Amino acid sequence: MEVHIELAAEELFKIGPFSITNSFLTMLLVMALILLVGAFVARRATLVPGRLQAMVELILEFLLGMTESAGGKSLGRRIFPLVSGLFIFIMLANYSGLLPGVGTVGINKESDHAEEAGEHTEEAAVYTLAAAGSDTPQSFVTGAADEEHGEVLVPFLRPPTADLNMTLAMALVTFVAVQVYGIRAHGVVGRLKHMADPPFLFPIELISEFSRIISLSARLFGNVFAGEALLGVMYAIGAKVSIAVIPIFVPVIFLFLELMFGTIQALVFAMLTLIYIAVAAAHGHDDEHEDAHKKEGAHAPAHGAGD
């Protein structure tokens, strides 16, 4: 068995034309967990919250306060489900890579190197037969026939955020949400004018809008995948070093670091989504505040000069 780090998510099976990968399977499990916990807390909610309800309320209150402080009360409450959903899903998806069995339990498949070795073996046999009746020395492919057919572990579960397809999909959701809220606040023409203020900056603004898709997806994928690879290397080193508590102590340090980085990356993605939407709907949000202040001023009682 060789050490195997695969950049792309690995296919487990197919349902018709659809390929089910290990990251997709983990995504379904994370989504099911969120729905089950949310339904459980909602049905058993009480005025005096228990530990689980208090923890959920603490997270949601923090996210609601963050959205309202960045986008205002009206806009913040509208985008709160999107921002909180992204944060909770990404955080749990990042944590899923730290669970026992994730990335370590799977099926053994023949590695690409072994398949290439088999191809070289067939080529060497052809060259040998072709040169059998020749008096001229021939150069043959050597060593391929002696290579062992290596196997790699294809895990059943892989963190969803360690798959670029998943992070790209979430980045596209953010991109679409930014455009929708921007158009809702300004209209199509107003949104374009907002991006073209001043006009010569419009190409730069356009490139900036699309570059967010790459930056959001690549940042999250790169950090999570690098963390998974680092944990795998640390486990391998710890297994080889049998000195005192090093095999246990060293991986535990990196597990705590992954917990911290998983939370930070989820918060960064959610906050960037919040900021992008708030900036896109900025002028419309200011107009709402101005209208509210005007209404308050119109209903305010008039004071006399001597008051």
Helical fraction equals 55-70%
Name the helix and strand elements from N-terminus to C-terminus, one letter apiece: EEHHEHEHHHH
Determine the mean pLDDT: 76
Low-confidence stretches: 113-148, 284-293, 302-307
The count of DSSP E runs of length 2 or more, i.e. the number of strands, is 4
Termini separation: 88 Å
Largest sheet, if any?
2 strands, antiparallel
3D architecture notes:
The protein has helices at 22-43, 51-96, 112-131, 164-195, 202-240, 246-280, 282-299; strands spanning 11-15, 18-21, 106-110, 151-155. It is mostly helical. The protein folds into two domains: 11-106 and 158-294, no CATH class; 112-149, no CATH class. Strands 1-2 form a two-stranded antiparallel ribbon. A two-stranded antiparallel ribbon has the order 3-4. Residues 113-148, 284-293 and 302-307 have low confidence and may be disordered.
